[in-house]
# Entry
Amino acid sequence: MWGSTLLGYVGIDTIIEQMRKKTMKTGFDFNIMVVGQSGLGKSTLVNTLFKSQVSRRSSGWSRDDKIPKTVEIKSVSHVIEEGGVKMKLTVIDTPGFGDQINNENCWEPISKYINEQYEKFLKEEVNIARKKRIPDTRVHCCLYFISPTGHSLRQLDVEFMKHLGRAVNIIPVIAKADTLTPEEKTEFKQRVRKELEVCGIEFYPQKEFDEDMEDKSDNDKIREAMPFAVVGSDKEYQVNGKRVLGRKTAWGIVEVENPNHCEFSLLRDFLIRSHLQDLKEVTHNIHYETYRAKRLNDNGGLHPISSSSDTQESNL
Amino acid sequence: MTTNTRYKNRPVKAEDGEEKEYVGFATLPNQVHRKSVKKGFDFTLMVAGESGLGKSTLVNSLFLTDLHKDRKLLNAEERIHQTVEITKHTVDIEEKGVKLKLTIVDTPGFGDAVNNTECWKPITDYIDQQFEQYFRDESGLNRKNIQDNRVHCCLYFIPPFGHGLRPVDVEFMKALQDKVNVVPLISKADCLTPTEIRKMKDRVREEIEKFGIKVYQFPDCDSDEDEEFKQQDRELKESTPFAVIGSNTVVEARGQRVRGRLYPWGIVEVENQSHCDFVKLRNMLIRTHMHDLKDITCDVHYENYRAQCIQQMTSKLTQDNRVESPIPILQLSTPDVETEKLIKMKDEELRRMQEMLQKMQQQMHEQDL
# Structure
């Protein structure tokens, strides 16, 4: 039994309600980055996830555009609201990744961007007159889109995840999964998981950050099912009297939210309904701290933080 | 009867018009046909594209064989140091008495690395090597059993996941357009909706024109073909590049057993024309244009190579100031010692004859004076 027994009802449990009210008033930020070769359905998936046009779908490179020679970072923010809760969602796109003939080091601009956000936050944090709520532009989650070849990971995939796995939460997804039959999907996922293990790549949720047994068993189940094979769509069709999001082909309609067709709903539930907050916490408590420690060790250019640093309030 | 004997000996006179005799050379095509059937045909098909685009599956579907039964797929770690390889599989197929020696040239490793600069070089080198070998054989002394390993057609697989051609696609096709018949295909077309396929085809066609890529063009059909054939031909041309699907498995669809892919939301039938262009590709490749592909390889690509080669050689010869011999003697190393000796002997003979000629000419000249 924890602590002393209460002799009557005090009302401590109402703090949850108070926190909830406060969160609803202040709203919160979520920054999601999408990385993958052009045409893998990144923007469509994000729009499907958040059920709004938060990401502009590129129709490819028009006549006058050229594929950018280096990877660009484009971030777009929208405020979406649901059930009285406001969320400022920022989608960070990375056009040009993996599209060139020579893709060496194409992850560098992405790595640089992620570190720049940590740096921005750090600078605010060490300020003498700090803002009450530091604007959080740090990347909370990076969705990495794997091309559904059915064979195994491509070299570029391994290189990217190796370089960035320690700096940001990477969630690999198998894109355009409607090109794989159920057997092919299972085989492919197994092979991908094995390869990630062999290369020492830890994707979110990372095993080492499981806090307790309950977390571990929940996350184990999720880790076994990852990477999720997803299909995105912003078009609705009539199936069995219901309107569903899907893709219509000559041989049937792929229903995005049907768990027998693809794992989109698993991804959505995982990303938004259960682990959204955890993604932010891991980013803040672990990845950001790693960056901060490294910075403070590398050069004493920053003011030393006061000794009350172990009671860090989460800026959420 | 007597009229018959008269007809037999009468010579043909073109001016006679209606009384022109039946000679019988109209059977020539049949004779050629019979001889070729006896000899058999050969066809070399190259498949190129990144791994995982369904190349092997498509080849198996096209020729209803299983060429890659025991293939081992490499994982990402193993593939780090792999360069583009060229692998060949030959299979003898026979159908209704006609024999086909089919060679499939595969290009594993193409486009899979992080840095794919010039990843097509091993492929262009291979094609050139086949041309060179044929050139050597053709110019050699024993031409009875020349083996034709020249690549007749290259199927290039474009991933359906992009928005059209990528830089690597453009560079590859440009590097190969003058060496082989390039047929671009949109692979794994079952992940695209009909609208997306149309858009993709339009984009690819636009970009092919924009970048000036010379892909294989179907020859125009003769004006005396019937309307149905012409209509088919038009449809064929308008649906390029073909959007294809392949399958190694047989599934049950609409009460029949067909080659297809079984999804939870439906069954894709490979040979259903409303599902993909597989049938069009197969017809084009095997049933109607196989011979044309071979012809263009021989008449255009090979001749280009040969002309280039000879030009290089003759410019080298004149540079060295050697006697130009009437027979193009190759500078390339001949592995056969016997033939080399023969060539040397002939060389000597020629020289002696030329000397004799010169002496005779001089004598005649002196006599005249």
Q: What stands out?
A: Residues 60-64, 304-316 of chain A have pLDDT under 50 and may be disordered. The first strand of chain A starts at residue 28 and ends at 35.
